[in-house]
Amino acid sequence: MLVQRLRVGIIGVQPGRSWAARSHIPALQALSDTFDIAGIANTSRASAEAAAAETGIARAFDNAAELIAAPDVDIVTVAVKVPPHFELVKAAIGAGKHVYCEWPLGNGMAEAEEMAALARAKGSVGVVGTQAPFAPEIQYLKHLVADGFVGDVLSTTIVAWGGALQGGGTIPDKKTYGYLLDRANGATMLTIPVGHTLSALTSVLGTVSAISAVLATRRPTARVLDTGEVLPATAPDQVLVSGVLANDAPLSLHFRGGAPRDGDGLFWEINGTEGDIRVSGSSGQMQMVQLSLRGSRAEEKVFRPLEVPESYRNSWPEDVEVGNVARVYTAMAHDLRHGTRTTPRFEDAVALHRIIDAIERAAEGGRRILL
């Protein structure tokens, strides 16, 4: 059984803008009794050294291969863009490491399936970064639904905003956001914000059994604000899904590319025989934004706030992004030390990729897909 602090090597840190810099590093620093950051690796030694100096990390590796091979690294965190996930995760598992890989796990279902199979064969704990189910509001929502607040679930509806596009079909900069416009890169509104939302939805309401869908690219170009370039866009900016949950309750989901005009970017309602609950937030990136719950049941005619008990928040970082990532790392440490399975694993990522694959096939073929 592991008793020492777990040593984490992080691949992909760009101070000031990357997800690892904003969430993983402060999360691990807040969990210093459990974790050590062994070092970071980027595409070059110079880049890693600059990032290490700015984030207060003691060690910079020459490259990802050196980090993966280091004997003082127990967990490899893969927090780069989606296309390199496959090779980095395979190398880390092959080196006998445990892995925390950000979502999406792979560029498509086939890559995810291969990584999950390799983790099983090597006995590696492979955790995927679907943090939304660890948000206090989603944890409490799961409790409320299981405890009968809404009674039997009749249906659920989600309308949200997300993706790379901002107002007027723009993106802030080419380096960070440009690759999100190309569907071939596997990092689209469908795979990222819709994927995270589906991870939360299925954690609360169970699996999806059937899917019909429409995918549309209504803005075929995007203007880059920092360079003035106009780039082609092939990723869908409209995702419409109708489906059925395992309990036969209908599911409706519509994600729109861009940002809402009024800052109200998420509406999720669960309708039941005894009551209804609504989840709201500033965008459909449920793992990144502050969520709020309102509910109404029995003879009530208005929705009232449902305050999350303090026990769901105690001792966690207050920042939403940092807190949710810290919860996943804490669960991962518990799994490694006690042989439990409380984290989202690569097999769970495959199940999520399977839903997204069904959405794509349903939209392409204009037919209903059974899962």
Automatic annotation (TrEMBL):
SUPFAM superfamilies, sorted: Glyceraldehyde-3-phosphate dehydrogenase-like, C-terminal domain, NAD(P)-binding Rossmann-fold domains
GO molecular function term, any single one: nucleotide binding
Domain Gfo/Idh/MocA-like oxidoreductase N-terminal: 6-128
Gal80p-like C-terminal domain span: 136-281
InterPro entries (UniProt xref): Gal80p-like_C, Gfo/Idh/MocA-like_OxRdtase_N, Gfo/Idh/MocA_oxidoreduct, NAD(P)-bd_dom_sf
Domain of life per record: Bacteria
Pfam families: Gal80p_C-like, GFO_IDH_MocA
Name of the featured protein: Gfo/Idh/MocA family oxidoreductase
Species for this entry: Rhizobium lusitanum
